[in-house]
Amino acid sequence: MIRTTLLAASFAAVLATAAFASDLTLGTVLGTTPEAVSAALTEAGYTVQKHEREHGRIEVKATREGKRYEIKVDATSGAVTAIELDD
């Protein structure tokens, strides 16, 4: 009984983590270096095309599910400040 409960709890935690990771919103903290931001986005299901640090922020161009995004992150706090869907 304990094993079944523990397995169910573990499975629920994995699903909750995966759902949270894929929902990128303003304020989500990704990291304070281009490499950390790229790694976090990759873990969330994005394919990072390019990243650069410029004017106190990290700008990332990435794709996910066939859509192209430009994501801007504050380099000091690591928080997402803008998410733009490119046409």
From TrEMBL:
<feature type="domain" description="PepSY">
    <location>
        <begin position="7"/>
        <end position="82"/>
    </location>
</feature>
<feature type="signal peptide">
    <location>
        <begin position="1"/>
        <end position="21"/>
    </location>
</feature>
<dbReference type="InterPro" id="IPR025711">
    <property type="entry name" value="PepSY"/>
</dbReference>
<keyword id="KW-0732">Signal</keyword>
<protein>
    <submittedName>
        <fullName>Peptidase propeptide and YPEB domain-containing protein</fullName>
    </submittedName>
</protein>
<dbReference type="Pfam" id="PF13670">
    <property type="entry name" value="PepSY_2"/>
</dbReference>
